[in-house]
């Protein structure tokens, strides 16, 4: 990677984390305009970073679809937002499943049990959104499984993304609690970064083993 490209990547990533801090702070102090503005800048910044890392088109598409989802959810188009994020997870799945991986069926079983438990707990409060949320949650869980099969960093990202969306589902099901919004966006921002960097960062940087995938 060229030095100029590396420096630009660091600047963009610094902007991403800065926007994350602003987003979480805006949620805590309930600054609506700042909250909306910082949220819709997150994924475009992460997309710019993936470009500096020479990410594949599918990985970039996953981040752009997430950006569309963030924007749609800010306009209260819940189902359209879910559809955009479903497209993002489809892209993530295609990225992870196309790469060599150590597939653990224990990981699959654990996440399947988690998905079933979440749906059982949340379904009574979801009303007409029960089916689309369950279907989306299944796709999200599949991303978490495939990401963990890929490597630990992406796996942690998939897990945090799952936590973030589970927190949103809690709100939809009428189970909100103080601090949920800040926790949702914190886990979302970190999760998205780990998902993408787990693909773009060479394997030796992740494990210290000197082996590149």
UniProtKB/TrEMBL annotation:
Taxonomic superkingdom: Bacteria
Organism lineage: Bacteria, Bacillati, Actinomycetota, Actinomycetes, Propionibacteriales
Keywords: Membrane, Transmembrane, Transmembrane helix
Spans traversing the lipid bilayer: 12-34, 77-96, 108-127
Similarity field: Belongs to the TMEM86 family.
Keyword Membrane: yes
Predominant subcellular localization, coarse grouping: membrane
Topology of the protein relative to the lipid bilayer: Multi-pass membrane protein
Subcellular location, record wording: Membrane
The protein's name: Lysoplasmalogenase
Organism: Kribbella speibonae
